[in-house]
Amino acid sequence: MKQPTVINRLLVANRGEIVRRVFRTCRDLGIETVAIHSDADAHLPFVAEADHAVRLPGNTPAETYLRTDLVLAAARSTGADAIHPGYGFLSENADFARAVIEAGIAWLGPSPESIEQMGSKIESKKLMEAAGVPVLGNLAVDSATEDDLPLLVKASAGGGGRGMRVVRDLADLAGEVERASAEAASAFGDGTVFVEPYVERGRHVEVQVVGDGAGEVAVFGTRDCSLQRRHQKVVEEAPAPAIPDAVRERIHEAAHAAAASVDYQGAGTVEFLYDAARESFWFLEMNTRLQVEHPVTEAVFGVDLVALQIAVAEGRSGADLAAPAPAPNGHAIEARLYAEDPTADYAPQTGRLLELAVEHDAAFHSPGFGVRLDTGFETGDEVGTFYDAMLAKVIVHAPSRQQAARLLARVLEKARIHGLVTNRDQLVASLRHPAFADATGLTTAFYDDHPETLDAPGGDDLIPFVGAVALAQHRQARARVQSRIPAGFRNVVAAPSVTRFARGGDEIEVRWFGPSTRGPGFTLAEPDPERPVTVVTASPEEVVLDVAGVARRYRTRVQGSTGPDALLVDGPSGGATLRVVPRFVDPADQVAEGSLLAPMPGSVVVVHGAVGDEVAAGQPIVVMEAMKMQHTITAPYAGTLTDLPAQAGQQVEAGAVLAVVEPADSPENPAEGADA
User: Fold this and answer.
1) Quick one: which of 46, 86, 105, 259 is 20 to 30 A from 244 by CA?
2) Element (H, E) at 222
3) What is the pLDDT at residue 116?
4) DSSP label at residue 439
5) If we measure between CA atoms, which residue out of 548, 365, 517, 534 comes closest to residue 466?
6) Cα separations (Å) of 455 from 102, 291, 344, 423, 452?
7) What average pLDDT does the segment 658-663 reach?
8) pTM of the entire structure?
9) Angstrom distances, CA of residue 330 to CA of 118, 302, 438
10) What is the pLDDT of residues 544-561, one digit of tens each?
11) Beta bridge partners of 416
């Protein structure tokens, strides 16, 4: 069946933020929208925003979004005449693209042949070498030498850092290849990996292209995506800074040649590794889809890349696409906000978003200079274990890079994000770090070089005191007896009141005095004489402090259906979620010392060892998989495995006991030479 020349109803074969992004353009163009969704996603905004929504029974990607038959059935049942694949899932699956085209549905992506040619990092390197694009050579596992170190093990299919390992010791190579292959097979259904030289201080620079499928390719400048953790991008910007014009032109030409060599159709990205010291670059891969970071290109070039995808699918001429792209206007930076704990090896977080509010000018649309927000979640949504941990993308467009970084840091700092630990503080610290401000210091090793970003202060050190005051006011307002007595009032002041909060993985103790016969108001038990703090007004909803003569206003909210479970506090320099620690703990909730707990809900992939085994500090005990990533739980110290309830294939909840390690120098297991 001939592909339609006019698209009237479009299905997005994806979930969350990218679906809402495509829907935004569809509304602008008068195109009806169709969403598909798993049971786990039924409550998310992208489902409610669709003109038509189809439930795919199940929760996991394999049960839902990866089922070609279910996606095509949804398109037929809703009368969709086009499918946009988004990113991830089936977006770079040639068989899926071929099935869509054979079903007579317009495919908003490259040809299946282009996907296949670029889908294998091994084969695409050969193709690029033939097209004159610089490439890094592949190395054989059994012939690599010490002189080749460091090495990078990479999955041939897919991306996003999964199936990728850096090897610095040749003895580790075989094991890392095995682990990378297992992760790649789990994530992409293809465990093929390869080994290449690892450029220690390289930059990740990529080029946005749009092709018409007949050899005409438009180039929309560069992006820098060097700030990465676990080989996954967290900060992206356009244009890529501090690249000489002559080198930038060569990168553009290489990207054009790469796309033209496969008669590329639609939007795609050619990725390069750039060595600033040598002003050299090498082809990494081509992503045959829209990229997560596409908004920064849209901002500086004033284009709608989704609209261009639709135009290509409807048959826009190559001459239109090949017209010179406009010069970039200003600078754009995007920060990916993840539900993860950077201080715990970026462990994904799950649970309910108690609040998600980011001040912005437009959603899913570039407003000119200003702030754009792309997110798949809203306040109250549940963040589960089945999918990626990204909550939102915050994009800032400003006249200069310095202005963009400053504005983005402030927008993130002021955002109200509660209920889950996120990477917000690390993002703010990164954007304000001197090594980021000096663009020539950008490398993919940024976070290895600057671990201090992990220790970024969480905003305001008075937030716990504010939370204690708001909690006291909340309890006083709801008191059924002696309701007229001020919160924390004591006739005779002896010891201070103590409130305990959990903030992330830390417990915070706040010692304070309430109103008494000695004086009104709330005070800190250990005040700083050089920075006197006075509570001006206090309620469960707002606390105003006078800090050394400067007023600070805090917004506070108490969460909990049957009692105060958490305090949400936001001040002029950031906010925090403070979980209320009960004074008494149920003995049934206590676990044995040395217990290794599941950091998040997920499935147990591998269990190493058996009860009674001697283990070394740092030795892997259990490997879990959650949110498309594998996480290794290691022994905290040398000792003996005294319990190992975890089993391969088992689904576990966050906090479940996976293993128990008895310390080597414990009374029950004394160290060698110690008195028994």
Assistant:
1) 259
2) strand 217-229
3) 95
4) G
5) 534
6) 53, 30, 12, 11, 5
7) 91
8) 0.84
9) 32, 11, 17
10) 999 999 999 999 999 986
11) 357
Report the C-alpha gap between 512 and 465 in whole angstroms.
Answer: 8
| Alpha-carbon dihedral angle through residues 379, 537, 474, 508, given to the nearest 10 degrees | 80
How confident is residue 625, by pLDDT bands cut at 50, 70 and 90?
confident
- Amino acid at the residue 243: I
Measured CA to CA, the distance from residue 622 to residue 644 in angstroms comes to 9
Handedness of CA 19, 22, 25, 29 (dihedral sign): negative
Question: CA–CA separation, 627 vs 191, rounded Å?
Answer: 18
Q: Is 550 left (phi over 0), alpha (psi -120 to 50) or beta?
A: beta
Answer whether 556's CB lies under 8 Å from 470's CB.
yes
Q: Of all residues in the chain, what percent are helix, strand and coil, respectively (each to 5)?
A: 25, 30, 40
Q: Return the top range by mean pLDDT from 276-285, 328-337, 432-441.
A: 328-337
Angstrom distances, CA of residue 658 to CA of 176, 296, 596, 610, 645: 23, 42, 6, 12, 6
Please give the structure tokens belonging to residue 93: 């699956």
Of 183, 200, 193, 192, nearest to 148 by C-alpha is: 200
Closest CA to 286 of 406, 169, 517, 118: 118
Give the pLDDT band (50/70/90) at residue 440.
confident
- In eight-state DSSP terms, residue 5 is S
Are the C-beta atoms of 370 and 26 separated by less than 8 Å?
no
Domains of the chain, CATH where assigned? 9-108 (3.40.50.20), 137-197 (3.30.1490.20), 203-455 (3.30.470.20), 463-580 (3.30.700), 587-663 (2.40.50.100)
User: What pLDDT does residue 672 have?
Assistant: 45
Omega before 150 within 30 of 0, i.e. cis:
yes
**pLDDT greater at residue 4 or residue 484:** 484
Coil, strand or helix at 519 = strand
Question: What are residue 52's phi and psi, to 5 degrees?
Answer: -140, 140
Please state whether 302 falls in left (phi above 0), alpha (psi between -120 and 50) or beta. left
* Beta strand 32-37 pairing with 52-55: parallel
8 A C-beta contact, residue 344 and residue 329? no
In whole angstroms, how far apart are CA 221 and each of 236, 245, 278, 324, 546?
A: 13, 12, 21, 11, 49
Distance CA 362, CA 295 (A): 12
pLDDT above 90 for 322: no
Contact predicate 315/5, CB 8 Å: yes
Q: What is the pLDDT of residue 122?
A: 81
> How does the average pLDDT of the chain come out, rounded?
88
DSSP, collapsed to helix, strand or coil, labels residue 186 as helix
Name the nearest CA neighbour of 509 among 465, 461, 571, 457. Answer: 465
Q: What is the pLDDT of residues 483-494, one digit of tens each?
A: 566 666 666 667
SS3 track for 625-674: EECCEEEEEECCCCEEEEECCCCCCCEECCCCEEEEEEECCECCECCCCC
In this structure, the number of other CB atoms found within 10 A of the CB of residue 581 comes to 13
